[in-house]
Amino acid sequence: MPSSQDPVTGSGSLLRVMSEMGHEQVVHCCDPETGLRAIIAIHDTTLGPSLGGVRMWPYASEGEALTDVLRLSRAMTYKAAVSGLDLGGGKAVVIGDSRTGKSEGLFRALGRFVEGLSGRYIAAEDVGMEERDMAWMRLETRHVTGLPKADGGIGNPSPVTAYGVYLSMKAAVKSAYGSDSLAGRRILIQGAGNVASHLAHRLAGDGARLTVCDLHKSRAEHLAGLTGADVVEAGDVFEADADVFSPCALGAVLNDRTIPMLKADVVVGGANNMLENPERDAAALAAKGVLYVPDFVANAGGIMHVSCELEGKEESHSYRLAEAIYDNTLRVLERAGRDGATTARAAEALAEERIRAAGGSARRLRV
Ligand code: NAD
Q1: Are 82 and 350 in contact (CB under 8 A)?
Q2: Per-10-residue mean pLDDT, the chain, length 367
Q3: Mutate-to-test residue for ligand 1 from 127, 199, 272, 296, highest number of ligand atoms within 8 A of CB
């Protein structure tokens, strides 16, 4: 979700911020007839066309929307690169309320802007979006994924995302405790939505001891009923006992207020942008001795799934791709140990090296 910091209105120069963050192109989209106000950010296309979700959110200001799309698109570059995908990073934000502001016209207008980028940006689903909205965009452009199965889509990415988080958790637990078995481990899951539910079922199958929570307590109770988990109040999650904490709700949950409370030795989950301030919070986790797997390493199953849709492959292929997340996680942890860097920095360095090897500008990513 948007941060209170706003790099653009603060500096007065979008081009300067783009140059500092490494963005290639930022497109402002306005269609007064449908009320569309959107921004598409293409971060880096060295490895392939930029791919990333469309987020519809009632941003308080244009500056807040711009900040969000710049950060999210850069994270997509890292996610694709460290996952071995031949894709770049992009993202789109639509300023509006997803409960009241949607129409076919609005998404067709956005689709025309995406079409105008000739495949340099490929849209997917993110917060506030549904398959139907993607299908409306598809009426105007081929450069869209996350379609309903009936329209050639590959289906919901959540099970594959959860599988990748599960493998990443096994790798992290191996690194922390010497064995990747999750049997008997106390695992605390924040959120009881799509990713969390698929993850909890896998973990229960391995004999892990689960604790779950959700802002909607009935969801947590329902999941607990199916998996034998304990339930904690959402507000108490940071103080609950655990070997592994798995954030699978919204972003920015780990910060200078919550990190001091954590009891877990390992943090690995599905939530995007789980660190409120990536550099500061990764360093605080490392200083506390908590092994943190960068979210964009652990939750890459979703983008792997979408990349299969792009290539016309079967759903089973997504699971085969996601197998790589176990080794990707170990690689990041080993690199962090070797460099004496945080795991977040180590993952970024691996991504930057891959882009450089493909001929991308080191300057753009400020290596
Ligand atoms: P979801 O909407 O199905 O589930 C999220 C759940 O979190 C909801 O039940 C919500 O009530 C709960 N929640 C929100 N804030 C909470 C809080 N503070 N405490 C406890 N519960 C809270 O979403 P999802 O698809 O499962 O995605 C979960 C996270 O994973 C998101 O950050 C998403 O961006 C990320 N992610 C998802 C995918 C995917 O394939 N779905 C892929 C990559 C990343």
Answers
A1: yes
A2: 51 87 97 98 97 95 94 94 96 96 98 98 92 95 90 88 98 98 98 96 98 96 98 97 96 96 98 92 97 97 94 92 98 97 96 90 49
A3: 272
Whether 161 lines ligand 1, by a CB cut-off of 6 Å, is yes
Give residue 163 CA to ligand 1 midpoint distance, Å. 15
Q: Is 294 in the pocket of ligand 1 (CB under 6 A)?
A: no
**Residue 254 DSSP label:** B
Q: Which helix (H) or strand (E) holds 124?
A: strand 121-125
Read off the tokens for 227.
């998996």
Distance (Å, whole) CA 131 – CA 104: 12
Question: How many CA atoms are closer than 13 Å to the CA of 131, on its beta-carbon side?
Answer: 13
Nearest CA to ligand 1 atom 30: 271
